[in-house]
Amino acid sequence: MPRRKPGTLLPLEKEILRTALSLRGSFHGFGLAHAMREQSGSRALTAHGTLYKALGRLEERGLLSSVWEDAAAAEGRPRRRLYELTGEGARIARAEPATAPSPRVAARPA
Amino acid sequence: MTPERMARLVAAWVRFYTRRQPPAAAQRRREEIDADLHDHIAHEREAGTGERRIALSIAGRMLRGMAADASSHRPLVRVGLATAIVLLVPVILSAPWSLADFIAAGVLVAGSGLLLEAAARRPHSLAVRAAGIVIGVAACLFGNADDAPGLVLFGCLLIGATLALAVRTRLRSE
User: Fold this and answer.
1) Which chain A residues are Cβ-neighbours of B33 within 8 angstroms?
2) Candidate from B28, B62, B67 with C-beta closest to A48
3) Which of A62, A102, B43, B91 is 20 to 30 Å from B132 at the Cα level?
4) pLDDT tens digits, one per residue of B50-80
């Protein structure tokens, strides 16, 4: 876990919030990784471990909420975890200026 | 390697990585990544991406995540994970390596990793410096005999890094 001042967000977490805001509604992990790649113009998708740990941290901080999708909606494929910005998450995402995209690999995992 | 086989490799890594997490958290992470892998493969196939390229894309995500994961472990585990990551590259690229090649590469990479860990902990140790030079010279000699320029380059870099570390340590202690 990278050292950071209490209450601050890592660049990747800010990018997730900004991308989530642009997705308008619920989203799942791969959809988010794909949208982040499109928006940053990068060729690589965010690493699995890095992405889901960041999503977990944001959920712990109350900036995202998540639920499993219905098994019926999954239609035989593995069911997705659906995330949504909370009110606080949306407020922070709106306040974040659109800066350069963060590196795709976090310095340290959670 | 097919995308499905690569996805199974990622799933195995996730099971290993989450083995010490609380069962509910581990299960959630595994299911989330299973769904991600399924969506990734389906999306790329729909876009007409080749099978090999999809597999490489999944491997890239896994390797970058593994590098980040490895950095949070104890030194021995870290070296083991780093060695596994390096040895996965020829597996993923289906390089024509024999078992002996993997063993030799594993010994060299793990040896270098342990050496770097030791050097970081004991920068003044003469034994660590000597080991760096010996492994570097051995890599150069084996690489030259086996007509493997990569191995020779590795040996030269290791010798250079050992000497640079020794000079830096000496300058800092003056």
Assistant:
1) 29, 48, 52
2) B62
3) B91
4) 999 999 999 888 888 776 666 656 777 778 8
Residue of chain B with shortest Cα separation from A45:
B61
Residue A99 distance to chain B (closest CA, Å): 23
Element (H, E) at B117: helix B99-121
CATH topology of domain A13-95: Arc Repressor Mutant, subunit A (1.10.10)
List, in order, residues 6 or more apart from B163 with CB less than 8 Å away: B133
- Is the pTM higher than 0.80? The answer reads no
Chain A closest CA to B85's CA: distance in Å?
A: 14
- Say how many CA atoms lie within 13 Å of B164 toward its Cβ: 8
ipTM for this model? 0.82
The reply to whether A26 touches chain B by the CB within 8 Å rule is no
Give domain limits for chain A. Answer: 13-95
